[in-house]
UniProtKB/TrEMBL annotation:
It comes from Larkinella knui. Its cofactor is FAD. This is UDP-N-acetylenolpyruvoylglucosamine reductase. Residues 18-189 form the FAD-binding PCMH-type domain. Keywords: Cell cycle, Cell division, Cell shape, Cell wall biogenesis/degradation, Cytoplasm, FAD, Flavoprotein, NADP, Oxidoreductase, Peptidoglycan synthesis. Cell wall formation. Belongs to the MurB family. It is an enzyme of class 1 (oxidoreductase).
């Protein structure tokens, strides 16, 4: 039975804590409920927003359509072979709880993605990533319900068209499908990723040497790093990294490096370099700065924050000013990672 509500506050359903309202609201626990929902022509025709953990959204106004809160649960091993274990999770499963499940069972590959907020169904849409690992490296396939037909379609790795914080669900398939489950291919023998960020230093501080490495140790290190740098949304409204790390040509990087010798960069291919957006923002003097109750986090310049009572428009205004500062100083355009509604 569907419980469709109207004029529902979304404040507790987005990590920025913005008090936008949904014209219609429904929570979905099963695929069958999805099919039932879209048999109602009124809702089939309405603008739709699929909501997971609300950790990658900025509401700048009320949503005059239907918000579908995906809460399908369940984690199970569907098959395994000599090298891999295949783990299927419902779209509404909390991402970090899924990571902990895999770490506790010795299924390797997700550990670097510990403590990322949000739900499993949203993970492939954004191709979430952290500390040298992205979803596409462990993704096998997903199941999604076609909004028009109610039929379930399987998307394999190639069909998802993953890119840097990109997938087909942000482009051609946007608004056409609702992800109901995701299956991951995880390793029985771990391949450790410790080169990115402060993982090695943190492991050393934890007293863990190279020959003592485990996926739990890496997960614990990532959790420690994230908690030290990123604000808890329950205390300070935020959506994690607000901007993507920009990629620029190696020639442009060399030119900027001559003017800014401390500029960090990471090769992403033969011709491009990825520059940390947080470093660029900090160099422009935004770290810890705020305009009213909207601003930039004091410990991590990549994170925009709601210090209490800020509107989405006020946070977006800070984002625009940050973008302009970085473009004026470095000639680099920052693109939002957060979805702006």
């Amino acid at each position: 039975m569907l419980d469709i509500q109207s004029h529902v506050s979304l404040k507790s359903y987005n990590t920025f804590g913005i008090d936008a309202k949904a014209r219609y609201w429904v929570e979905i626990d099963t695929e069958e409920q999805l099919r039932t929902l879209f048999q109602v022509s009124e809702f089939l025709a309405a603008p739709k927003l699929i909501l997971g953990g609300g950790s990658n959204l900025l509401f700048t106004h009320d949503f005059e359509g239907l918000v579908v809160k995906m809460s399908i649960q369940g984690i199970k091993v569907t098959r395994e072979d000599a090298a891999h274990v295949y783990v299927k999770a419902g779209a509404g499963v909390n991402w970090h709880q899924l990571v902990l499940f895999c770490v506790q069972n010795g299924y390797a590959g997700m550990e670097n993605l510990s403590l990322i907020p949000g739900t499993t169904g949203a993970a492939p849409m954004q191709n979430i990533g952290a500390y040298g690992v992205e979803i596409e490296q462990i993704f096998d396939h997903l199941e999604a319900v076609d909004i028009l037909t109610g039929e379930t379609r399987i998307f394999n790795h190639a069909e998802c068209r993953f890119g840097y914080r990109e997938s087909i669900f942000k482009h051609e398939a946007k608004g056409k499908y609702i992800i109901s489950s995701v299956t991951f291919r995880l390793n029985k023998q771990p391949v450790f990723h410790t080169a990115y960020g402060a993982i090695r230093e943190t492991l050393e501080a934890m007293g863990i040497s190279e020959d003592q490495l485990t996926i739990k140790a890496i997960s614990d290190a990532v959790i420690r790093i994230r908690r030290s740098k990123l604000p808890n949304p329950a205390e300070i409204g935020n959506a994690g990294s607000f901007f993507k790390n920009p990629e620029i040509s190696k020639d442009d990087f060399a030119r900027l490096k001559a003017d800014y010798p401390t500029m960090p960069g990471y090769p992403t291919g033969d011709l491009t370099m990825k520059v940390p957006a947080g470093w660029l923002i900090e160099q422009c003097g935004w770290k810890g700065k705020h305009i009213g109750n909207a601003g930039v986090h004091a410990k991590q310049a990549l994170v925009l924050v709601n210090l209490g009572g800020a509107t989405g428009a006020e946070i977006l205004n800070v984002a625009y000013k940050v973008q302009q500062s970085v473009e004026d100083k470095f000639g680099i355009k920052l693109n939002p990672e957060v979805n702006i509604i």
